[in-house]
Amino acid sequence: MKKILITRKLLKESEEKASKIFDVKFNSNDELYSQSKLIESSEGYDAILTSLTDKMDKETINKLPDSIKVISNFAVGFGNIDLESAKKRRIAVTNTPEVLSDATAEIGILLILGACRRVPEGIQSAKESNWKWSADYLIGKQLTGARLGILGMGRIGQKIAKIAKALGMVIHYHNRSKLGEEKEQGAIYHDNLKSLFSVSDVLSICCPATKETENLINKETLEYFPTGAVITNVARGDIVDDEALIDALNRRKIYAAGLDVYKGEPNLNIGYLKIKSVFVLPHLGSATKYTRTAMANLAIDNIDEFFKTGNCRNKVN
Ligand code: DGY
């Protein structure tokens, strides 16, 4: 039986599944392992099932024991893992695509609604009983007829586009390549950022975090947007230069932001918390029982597939 280390607590059903296939070391207290604890704990193990909270940087990967052949990430994003270093050490890295697209797109839509319709201010006033109805009370931005720019038209972006279209939004997108008609579903392709941003009343960031997308929303690119645009991010915090976005919000160049992901999670830039029009969530993208179970099961199956066949269809390096 292969020996696997699971760095964070999974839902019960998934831990039971893992125990049936592997000899597993669980983290029953769900403590966040330091790099040294992670390295030490993986001694004598064949694979590690990591979460996005594990920083598998070059130094950590280079210190892993030779016995480790697979790092199976319990996420579709793998910005927490240095793929090149893993490749050099002949460690396969896998992820969990598709199974979380629906749940994450739901949160993507929630961010758009929350930011456009002034939900944070509304919740606070309702809880404080500090409101009275009037014709101009908490007037927000209507989605019907507004242009939604989607940055990264993968599975999550496409699902957000589908729901937003049903809400009456007009969909524009930028992606590395133009999609076929069936996937596009009438969305308008832009081959560069400036062109997309300049027609985005609302932006939904859905692209992966890579060296190329780091701080892609910055002082310069924020100026491409129409004044009063709304920016939402369901992908990764690294894509946004926080200081630039906070400044644009304070200047009212950007009307509101809806954020589920941050640089340096679980912390978030305190500047966001001082702005009434910022709708923040604590990385809830895939947080449903159905999806978290499907993700964990896929992360377990990825390891199993690798050891049975020497490869895995969800290998990313
Ligand atoms: C992912 O899988 O990348 C999601 O952000 C997890 O919630």
Question: What's a concise summary of this model?
Answer:
It contains 13 helices and twelve strands. With 317 residues, it is α/β, with parallel strands linked by helices. It folds into two domains: 3-98 and 288-309, Rossmann fold, CATH 3.40.50; 101-280, Rossmann fold (3-Layer(aba) Sandwich).
Characterization of this structure:
This protein has 317 residues and is of the alpha/beta class. The chain has two domains: 3-98 and 288-309, 3-Layer(aba) Sandwich (Rossmann fold), CATH 3.40.50; 101-280, Rossmann fold (3-Layer(aba) Sandwich), CATH 3.40.50.720. 36% of the residues lie in helices and 15% in strands. It has helices spanning 12-21, 35-41, 58-63, 83-88, 101-116, 119-127, 155-166, 181-184, 193-197, 219-222, 242-250, 270-273, 289-309; strands at 3-6, 23-25, 47-50, 70-73, 92-94, 147-151, 170-174, 188-189, 202-205, 229-233, 254-259, 278-280. The strands form two sheets. The protein has a seven-stranded parallel sheet with strand order 8-7-6-9-10-11-12. Strands 2-1-3-4-5 form a five-stranded parallel sheet. The longest helix has 21 residues, at 289-309. 42% of the residues are buried. The mean pLDDT is 97. The structure holds (2R)-2,3-dihydroxypropanoic acid (DGY).
* Whole-number tally of structural domains: 2
Using the coordinates shown, work out and report the CATH topology of the largest domain.
Rossmann fold
How much strand?
15-25%
The H-and-E topology, N to C, reads as EHEHEHEHEHHEHEHEHEHEHEHEH
Number of strands: 12
Specify the CATH homologous superfamily of the largest domain: NAD(P)-binding Rossmann-like Domain
